[in-house]
Amino acid sequence: MHPTGTLIWYYYICPREVWLMSRHLTPWQENPFIEIGRLISKESYQRDRKEIRLENIVIDLLKTEGENVVIGEVKKSSRFEKSARMQLAFYLWKLNHLGIEATGKLLFPREKKKITVMLTKEIEDELEEAQQKIISIVQMETPPPARRIKFCSKCGYQEFCWS
Amino acid sequence: MKRSIYIFSDGELKRKDKTLCFETKEGKKYIPVENTHEILIFGEVTINKRLLEFLTESEIILHFFNYYGYYVGSFYPREHLNSGYMILKQAEHYLDHKKRLNLAENFVSGAIENIKRVLIYYANRGKPLNETIDKINSIALSIKDCESTEELMAVEGNIRDEYYQAFDIILDSEHFVFEARTKRPPKNRLNALISFANSLVYTTVLSEIYHTHLDPRIGYLHTTNFRRFTLNLDVAEIFKPIIADRVIFNLVNKSIIKPNHFEKKLDGIVLNDKGKQLLIQHMDERLRSTIQHKRIGRHVSYRQLIRLELYKIQKHLIGEEEYRPFQSGW
């Protein structure tokens, strides 16, 4: 089992989402926040290259700035900054293994905000650990129990979890 | 909240760029797809493949009804939520006799609980229904002894007989008497109302199933014959008393629906267009009305409640939480 960027993203928000996503039990698609997110990633940065697929990762956009390769991840808001950082770091780490040195930029078009993400030894170790944990979550027979956290109120799984 | 669209006129439904357009002799009407949950067609409507492709892309179900208001079938677009895992779980609970029976029992007992709620509601308003409630309680005792879904269906049938007999006590209207349950065609006005309202509940549940990871072809109480939808019939049992029947009682007791909303057809009685529209309008209002949901912590509509019920079934199938059918609070 190879964790994907999406699972890394979910891991830092809620382990239950990791389990559900691993079974392709996708969240309620009409959740307004999911719809807004989808729209933002569709409408923003239309001039740059979009959706590059490499093995099991999907990179929102990729460009070269001089010698450097820059990959971008578009997000609705910086509310989940930790998740976003680790997802992008995971892509950098993956590219690294393919022999591509790159830097990452988190893009929050609505907030007109960009955050640069670089791969460091600490982040690599953290990613390693996260991947191990993700694998063990996915191997569970039943999902980790629902726990109410601050993200529940806007989550596409809230009706599923609390029904 | 997305809306259901009901089409009664004759005309052509087609794709117009990124929207839907319904064209009749009188003119064109545009239907924005982002706001459309499902489309129910009662009139003579022409459609083409381009439209079906667009509906699939927009994840909108089409339900067809014939001239007499009988459900004909649905255009159920290609599944957009695929989880092989959930399909396997659904099949596992179908193939394992004990697991299947457990779910089937839940659908029956859920239906009976909600039937009782309706009766208690009217008993509290002075209708002499205690005898019916007692009878239903005593028949319901045999649910736990049922060893097959056929037996369960029979118990449910017996309870429904008692329940329908009580319609005459609840309604007390010379124009709407129950006599006996008759379908295809219904032999009197009340039966016509019941049949039509029930088919609306079936299609509503089907539309909600489409937005979950469940496969509507695998039902538990109603025998799966692998080609038609049955899970929606199972889940509808729970909601028929509190959605369809309550709407019927309101319409008749408040004299909103009258004998002139019916016509004699095919040696039976059917609703005319005005009658169908009235019932649909009130069913739609009922589905959009909300109740406070404790665990979610806010108001949810009856339509959402149906979807939540499907989520509970999913959680049961996953092995996370034993399914307990929804019980109306009043």
UniProtKB/TrEMBL annotation, chain A:
GO MF annotation: an example: iron-sulfur cluster binding
Top-level taxon of origin: Bacteria
Names of the cofactor(s): iron-sulfur cluster; Mg(2+); Mn(2+)
InterPro entries with a match to the protein in the record: CRISPR-assoc_prot_Cas4, Dna2/Cas4_DUF83, PDDEXK-like_dom_sf
Ranges where the DUF83 domain occurs: 4-163
EC assignment: 3.1.12.1
Record flagged with keyword Isomerase: no
Coiled coil: none
Keywords assigned: Antiviral defense, Exonuclease, Hydrolase, Iron, Iron-sulfur, Manganese, Metal-binding, Nuclease
Gene Ontology BP terms: defense response to virus
Cofactor: how and how many bound: Mg(2+) or Mn(2+) required for ssDNA cleavage activity.
Role this protein plays: CRISPR (clustered regularly interspaced short palindromic repeat) is an adaptive immune system that provides protection against mobile genetic elements (viruses, transposable elements and conjugative plasmids). CRISPR clusters contain sequences complementary to antecedent mobile elements and target invading nucleic acids. CRISPR clusters are transcribed and processed into CRISPR RNA (crRNA).
PANTHER family, alphabetized: CRISPR-ASSOCIATED EXONUCLEASE CAS4
Similarity comment: Belongs to the CRISPR-associated exonuclease Cas4 family.
Protein name per its UniProtKB record: CRISPR-associated exonuclease Cas4
Protein source organism: Thermodesulfovibrio autotrophicus
TrEMBL record, chain B:
Keywords associated with the record: Antiviral defense, DNA-binding, Endonuclease, Hydrolase, Magnesium, Manganese, Metal-binding, Nuclease
GO biological process terms held by the UniProt record: defense response to virus; maintenance of CRISPR repeat elements
Cofactors required: Mg(2+); Mn(2+)
Tree of life domain: Bacteria
Alphabetized GO MF terms: DNA binding; DNA endonuclease activity; hydrolase activity; metal ion binding
EC numbers, comma separated: 3.1.-.-
Keyword Cytoplasm: no
Residues involved in Mn(2+) binding: 156, 222, 237
Subunit architecture: Homodimer, forms a heterotetramer with a Cas2 homodimer.
Xref: HAMAP family: Cas1
Family assignment from sequence similarity: Belongs to the CRISPR-associated endonuclease Cas1 family.
Record's protein name: CRISPR-associated endonuclease Cas1
Lineage of the organism: Bacteria, Pseudomonadati, Nitrospirota, Thermodesulfovibrionia, Thermodesulfovibrionales
